[in-house]
Amino acid sequence: MTAQPALAPPLRVSRWFNTHEPISIASLRGRVVLLHAFQMLCPACVSHGLPQTIRARQLFAPEELAVIGLHTVFEHHAVMNAAALEVFIHEYRLTIPIGIDEAQVATSFPLTMQAYQLHGTPSLILIDRLGRVRLNHFGHIDDMALGGLIGQLIAEPAATAADMLDRSQTTSISAAAACGNDGCGISNTGSSAT
What we know:
alpha+beta, Glutaredoxin
C-alpha cells in the first residue's frame, strides 16, 4: 500500500506583501496552491522561477489556482531583508502575495523552508484541493510539465482527489552546494531541511 501524501505544513511568515491579510494553507482549501520559494539574489529565481510563477498566475483562474511567493532566505541575510524585498517587489512589479519565511535564531534556515524540507531556491510546491503536498521540486521545471500538473490537480474534484492521486508526481531533487543556472542549493550537512 502506498502512503497518502502529507498535509502541507502551515506557512511560517513574518511579513506579507501584496495582501491585506495573512494567508494560510487552510484558508486556501478547495483550490490548488502553487507555492514558489525564492530568494531575490538567486539568479535562477529571477530568470526562471519568478517569471514562470507569474505566467502560471496569468494562465489559471484565481478561484482554481492560488499563487503565493515565499521569500526564504538561507544565505546573505543582512542584504536580503524586508526593505530590500519591498524594493525588489516594486521594481519587478510583482503582484502575487509574497511572504517572508520566518527566521529561526538557532540556524540560518527559515521555518517554512525546514517544514517543507526545501533543498534551496527556486523551489516549487504544488498543494492539492485537500491541502496535501503533491509536488516538491527544487530547481527549474519545464513550463509544459508544470502546466500539465496544475491542470491535473485542478481537474480533480475535491471530494475524490484522494482516490485519483498519482504518487509518481511527488518528487524531491537533491540539493546543490551553491548558486548556478538551476538554482541556489543548500548543503545537507547540519540542516534539518534535508
